[in-house]
């Protein structure tokens, strides 16, 4: 009996050692800096998260090829929460255990918002290249949460300017039912309602095979324009195909997703995207956007067309590079956070050439003005043909 009990104790003790070993904190090599990345490579946000993740890898490779940060090589520690907010905390905690100095959040908005509190508790700075929900970088618990792209409240300001320019007064919305878009609409819808009547909001599953019923109900409200809010991919194309068949002359607007997913354009029916206006962030007059295209050629091919996700991913890495390069000890996460808050006027890879990125202790939204946003219009060949001529946001003054 005594032998059996001793064996049981030994098994339990061994199990405890294994558990402890799994959760042990790793110490990075002295000549390296660990940066974590939560990349949603298999969830509903994969269509844009993979774009971000690949560009982060390219940017890190470029930095390492040029001597790293103060002679230290960057090591990426990658996790995947599948845009499932319930999985986000474990991914972030793993980054902490791996000794990450900061983390890049290339995942869905719902997961990014879930990460906010975990970053705060862990004392780990997190930069999101693609989140648009500005509450991520606003109080409470915003001390370790940093954004790169212009926020949804700024999207709403630009949309409202566009609707006013065209004298649209009635807007109908078709949204996918993902957690990411639920978060987007919770932020975007209230300010839109202040400038235009939203006649109806219809939702459909991300993998819906038919949207005829939803589109019919929206058209019955006789809107002046349509807004499609989705993570892109199959949903976005099906939505525009359906609207094109049922109301080809009705003006349509979209979020940024469709403009950042070139592989999706070829899946649309002929002319289905013609005239559709989406929220873009790239313009050829920005020389850093041209530099981005050159940097991506080895990783993504000479014919690759950069997206806003690429530009914002690169800028997320550069913001961290700036901060990490200014601290004595990259393992001091509090020092890294403070250094991020002192990044000023970093020229952006997206938006107009005048756009710069800055942080401060009271502002964790990087874009310094609305000119990080460019309304872009698709042409008859289902390819973006350039900036929309009817309206563009001003580049003057600071973003509010």
From TrEMBL:
Pfam family, one: Peripla_BP_6
Record's protein name: ABC transporter substrate-binding protein
Domain Leucine-binding protein residues, every copy: 32-355
Family: Belongs to the leucine-binding protein family.
Membrane-spanning segments: none
InterPro entries reported for this sequence: BCAA_transport, Leu-bd, Peripla_BP_I
UniProt KW Signal keyword: yes
Sorted UniProt keywords: Signal
Signal peptide: 1-24
């Amino acid at each position: 009996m005594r032998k059996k009990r001793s064996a049981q104790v030994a098994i339990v003790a061994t199990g405890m050692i294994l558990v402890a070993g799994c959760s042990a904190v790793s110490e990075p090599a002295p000549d390296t800096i660990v940066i974590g990345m939560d990349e949603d490579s298999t969830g509903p946000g994969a269509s844009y998260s993979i774009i971000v993740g690949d560009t982060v890898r390219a940017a890190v490779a470029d930095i390492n090829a040029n001597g790293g940060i103060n002679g230290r090589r960057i090591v990426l520690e990658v996790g995947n929460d599948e845009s499932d907010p319930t999985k986000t905390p474990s991914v972030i905690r793993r980054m902490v255990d791996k000794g990450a100095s900061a983390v890049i959040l290339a995942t869905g908005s719902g997961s990014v918002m879930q990460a906010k509190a975990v970053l705060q508790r862990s004392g780990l700075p997190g930069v999101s290249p693609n989140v648009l929900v500005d509450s991520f970088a606003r109080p409470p618990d915003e001390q370790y949460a940093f954004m790169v792209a212009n926020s949804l409240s700024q999207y709403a300001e630009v949309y409202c300017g566009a609707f006013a320019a065209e004298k649209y007064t009635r807007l109908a919305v078709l949204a996918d039912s993902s957690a990411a878009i639920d978060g987007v609409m919770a932020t975007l819808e209230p300010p839109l309602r202040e400038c235009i009547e939203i006649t109806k909001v219809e939702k459909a599953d991300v993998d819906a095979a038919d949207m005829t019923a939803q589109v019919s109900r929206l058209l019955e409200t006789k809107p002046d324009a349509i807004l499609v809010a989705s993570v892109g991919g199959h949903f976005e194309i099906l939505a525009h195909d359906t609207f094109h068949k049922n109301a080809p002359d009705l003006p349509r607007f979209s979020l940024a997703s469709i403009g950042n997913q070139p592989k999706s354009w070829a899946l649309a029916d002929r002319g289905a995207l013609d005239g559709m206006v989406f929220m873009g962030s790239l313009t050829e007059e920005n020389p850093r956007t041209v530099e981005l295209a050159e940097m991506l050629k080895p990783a993504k091919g000479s014919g690759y067309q950069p997206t806003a996700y690429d530009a914002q991913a690169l800028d997320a890495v550069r913001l961290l590079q700036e901060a990490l390069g200014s601290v004595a000890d990259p393992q001091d996460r509090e020092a890294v956070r403070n250094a991020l808050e002192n990044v000023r006027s970093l020229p952006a890879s997206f938006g107009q050439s005048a756009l710069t990125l800055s942080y401060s202790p009271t502002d964790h939204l990087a874009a310094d003005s609305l000119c990080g946003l460019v309304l872009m219009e698709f042409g008859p060949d289902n390819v973006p043909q350039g900036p929309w001529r009817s309206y563009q946001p001003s580049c003057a003054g600071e973003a509010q």
